[in-house]
Amino acid sequence: MPDGQSPDYPDVRLLIGNRWVDATGAETYPVVDPASERVIGNTAKAGEADLELAVASAVSGYAIWKNVSAYDRSRIMRKAADLVRQRAPAIARLMTMEQGKPLAEAAAEVNVAADTIDWFAEEGRRTYGRIVPSRSIGTQQLVVKEPIGPVAVFTPWNFPLNQAARKIAAALAAGCSVVAKPAEETPACVAELANAFIEAGLPAGVLNLVFGTPSQISDHLIAHPAIRKISFTGSTAVGKTLAALAGRHMKRSTMELGGHAPVLVFEDADIDGAAMMMAQAKFRNAGQICISPTRFVVQRSVCERFTERFCAVARSIRLGSGLDSDTQMGPLANDRRLHAVASLVEDAVAQGGILRAGGRRHGNRGYFFEPTVIADAPATARAMNEEPFGPIALISSFDTAEEAIAEANRLPYGLAAFAFTRSNDTVMEVGAKVEAGMISINDNLLALPEVPFGGIKDSGYGSEGGLEAMEAYMNTKLVKVSRS
After folding, report:
1. What is the pLDDT confidence band of residue 447, given thresholds at 50, 70 and 90?
2. What angle do CA 146, 190, 472 make, to 5 degrees?
3. Cα separation of 221 and 432, whole Å?
4. At residue 476, does pLDDT exceed 70?
5. Same domain, yes or no, for 424 and 471?
6. What is the domain range of residue 309?
7. Which of 190, 203, 304, 425 has the most CB atoms in a 10 Å sphere around its CB?
8. Structural domain includes residue 407
């Protein structure tokens, strides 16, 4: 074992045709624990030859899987979900080692991933067509749903298991085969997800995993004529590039991209409860969440009270290794995020923002950054316009609902938004006028398997939850039959 590598963390290989194999060029890349900056393992790095093998495997797997009944597909998927639950402690530990989030958060993610697989397993049995009344006697018009074919999915490191489960489960439930490219930072927990599917009886080739250089893999898979759809979760900049490439090859795509979620807090709300709830939401996973609340727009009469309560929570959060039981917030995922977050804070303060909590790197080992609260940052500050994807909360005040809604809609992002109020009139106004794919009022739970999950504007298009997610993996075909 190389010096420094963890005995608890496995080397990860490529999954092609239900076999774990080394890359044909024998290349690997290191996996780093973000809490210690230590290399804990190595992962096979796919080259073009490996990608061709993975696509060929998906093509052969699709030929089998599309003819498996929805009932039998559901049975295999539910067994896989059960295996994921049984192995939750071990999978969660791997996730924490490679991603950094506290063990309790990782365990919750594993269980949500299992619930997601179960939900899509059942939804696949309810993918109905319809009969359209004909204009003539002796003619039937049938609308049927068919799987789109082999798909390529690209999943992020912030929720490595649940995001992979969302895409893979929807595709499998529809009858598609998959080539998945998980994030290079977090390969092991997704490999365990794949193992659960294999052991549940998924035919060879239906699910394939490749790891390596993101641009090389996406360019190859999206352009490949055998791949009929892509699904990507990640930054808006990368998503636009991949969507353009998919469009060039007439590939259907689902894009779940960046966000900069506003939180509108009205003076009639439960101010203390809102501050507590949203502070906990803001600093979960160190703020590395696409729907993370970021711009807190609070009515002026209660803004200082909200800010004080929010800062009290921020200052009380215990940072440390996610493997420590008393840790409440782990590190950022990599060195790039650490420098990016520090730069955003520095810019906001330089432009007149008031630092109310945090604002610095925590310690000198690991990618830890303090829970940070900045008040009155000007609209020109980078953090007010760029997705921070870190533990930064920006608080400003408003006088009228029109001002609050204008700020909520100011940016090109449109993924998630939140609001707190006791007024039914305000609920209706916010629900109707705020531009976002998802709005949660007096709550912060959005990512449930049974509800749509997706954005508008620069935050992407399509859904990764609810029955809408299944539609993206299916073709609609009209079969018109006339009596001969």
Report:
1. confident
2. 25
3. 39
4. yes
5. no
6. 261-448
7. 190
8. yes
Max CA pair span of the chain: 80
Look at residue 415 and tell me if it is in a domain: yes
- pLDDT at residue 256, as a whole number: 96
Q: Is the pLDDT of residue 436 over 80?
A: yes
Given 98, 184, 256, 464, which residue is catalytic? Answer: 256
Catalytic residue among 290, 311, 387, 435: 290
Q: Which tokens belong to 355? A: 């630092």
* Alpha-carbon span 292 to 281, nearest angstrom: 7
Do 194 and 234 belong together in one domain? yes
Q: Which of 321, 320, 295, 324 is nearest to 310 (CA)?
A: 295
32 assigned to some structural domain: yes
What does the block give as tokens for 479?
């079969």
Nearest-angstrom CA–CA distance, 459 and 122: 29
What is the distance in angstroms between the CA of the first residue and the CA of the last residue of the chain?
Answer: 72
**Known catalytic residue at 290:** yes
Claim to verify: residue 304 and residue 436 sit in the same structural domain: yes
pLDDT for res 475: 96
Please list, in sequence order, all residues whose beta carbon lies within 8 angstroms of the beta carbon of residue 90, skipping any fewer than 6 positions away: 192
Look at the pTM and tell me if it is higher than 0.85. yes
pLDDT digits 0-9 by tens, 241-299: 999 999 999 999 999 999 999 999 999 999 999 999 999 999 999 999 999 999 999 99
Which two structure tokens, joined as six digits, stand for 103?
């063990």
Q: Is 256 a catalytic residue?
A: yes
CB count within 10 Å of CB 38 equals 17
Residue 153 neighbours by CB distance under 10 Å: 24
Q: Which contiguous run of DSSP H or E holds residue 181? A: strand 178-181
**How many independent structural domains does the chain possess?**
2
pLDDT at 5: 58
Is residue 310 domain-shared with residue 425, that is, in the same domain? Answer: yes
The token duo for 251 is 């590939």
140 Ramachandran zone, left/alpha/beta (phi>0; psi -120 to 50)? beta
Strands 151-154 and 229-233: parallel
* Backbone φ and ψ of 204, nearest 5°: -60, 135
For residue 113, give the CATH number of its domain: 3.40.605.10
Segment 4-41, tens digit of pLDDT: 456 789 999 999 999 999 999 999 999 999 999 999 99
Average pLDDT taken over every residue of the chain:
96
Whether 222 and 298 share a structural domain:
no
